[in-house]
Here is the input.
Amino acid sequence: MRRRLSDWQRYWVTFETILTKEIMRFSRIWVQTILPSVITTTLYFVIFGRLIGERIGTMDGFAYLDFIVPGLVLMGVITNSYANVVSSFYSSKFSRYIEELLISPAPNWVILAGYVSGGAARGLVVGTAVMLVALLFTEIQIHSALVTLLICIMTAVLFSLGGFINAIYANSFDDISIVPTFVLTPLTYLGGVFYSIALLPDFWQKVSLANPLLYMVNAFRYGLLGVSDIPIGVAFGMIMLFIVVLTAFSLQLLRRGVGVKT
Amino acid sequence: MFALDVQQLAKVYKGGFQALKGVDLQVDEGDFFALLGPNGAGKSTFIGIVSSLVRKTSGRVQVFGQDLDEDPEGVKSSIGLVPQEFNFNLFLPVLEVVLNQAGYYGIPRREAKVRAERSLRQLDLWDRRGTEMRKLSGGLKRRLMIARALVHEPRLLILDEPTAGVDIEIRRSMWSFLRELNAKGTTIILTTHYLEEAESLCRNIAIISEGAIAERTSVAKLLGQLRTETFVLNLKGSVSELPELGGFVLQHLDDCTLEVEMKRDHTINGLFEALSRNGIEVISLRNKQNRLERLFLELVDQRAANLEGRA
Here is the structure.
């Protein structure tokens, strides 16, 4: 006889299905999804860390190579979480197989949780891979494993939500590359990946504080190295605030059927 | 209880186009129901609203007594949808498409595998379970859409032009499958451009035109409205001049083929007698399969004329 499941058990099955589908998707095409970030960051380590970094000396008391490791790991997490959701969800809209989910009894929050977790999973896989590459070039003592892990997960979740919102509004494949190219990449580079904002003049230090990525890069650097330009509590608070706002906004978009229903 | 009870359903798209203008429609549980209408009449909008792909502007939709606004999850669980356009991830294998669909409906993996195998076997697709979607032919994709829609065992199956573009053999096998499914208790609503399909499969019918129901009746009653019947005759020899036969209108299709339109109060015996008197011998005869089509066009034209008159 068929076992009758509770609503929560059904939701879990649906969540698990979406998450597995997403993980299978990026694993199947790992040459396109995982490898490029690993190669790019290896080049960063070789060029900026070894060749140029040795001439730069120290930053915040650390060898330049050690200083840039947290930022480069987080850059991999950010770009891959975002890219996974934006391309997967937009493809499902473009080829209309998002309809498989829309006609099903899956609640909107389960759909969102599934896609965001899938994006976060890719971000974390790439983050781990970049970290392993970093260990080939330098030895890193993790200052706080808990802070490192939490910031990594929260950042991956936040940028997966960003990718989801981008995919909802996207009407063409061009639309899914505009935000990463013109918004995300500049903010990442200006978010203190390669330098401490203490090096900047006062005015630009204040401008930098408006960049949300600065909080994530610094909080992650604190987790790994124990140094940060931003108080760690403020960084956690900012990231959490962004997550709450983007989650509420994504659910509102799904409820209104923006971009997926006529 | 109605399988589907729709009241005053209206849809106005952005830009002001009114696709549905207060549609009322009831479909009985267990029915095999056809929804017909010309392109742009509102069929797909209607199906889109019932299956939660399109947002309604106003009105009420109930499926087996459950209200779409109050219990969307309950309504969605009762419906299986076979859409008009292919909507697959083309890079997934057949089995995974069906398993994912089962997962979206909250069916645990172990049970989903059993159901997916059953659905795929029913539609003769089990041997193709490892094939990527993009490598399937159009006919196989259509069958897979049915298998996918059945994996959660819906009580109401909605098919939007399910046999569009498939060859006659696959179409016939799909008809026979749908008949069996309906006989086992699944309510089926079908839209189709092949009116022969509706005539052959469905018991009841609604014709939708300009966003409103123009006719809602049984297929038998609708066909009963026909005042004439048309036959195609293959002749033994060629006939150059057509004789005048009272009550029958003859037309040449070629030298050896005639089309005969006869009023319903005349008999085929009478037709044969009249042809024999004129020395015309008939080898074979077939009914021209356009009866429903003719009625359909009459009703749609009539409605358009009424609307014009009102304006």
In short: The first strand of chain A starts at residue 58 and ends at 59. The mean pLDDT of chain A is 89. Residues 7-256 of chain A form one domain.
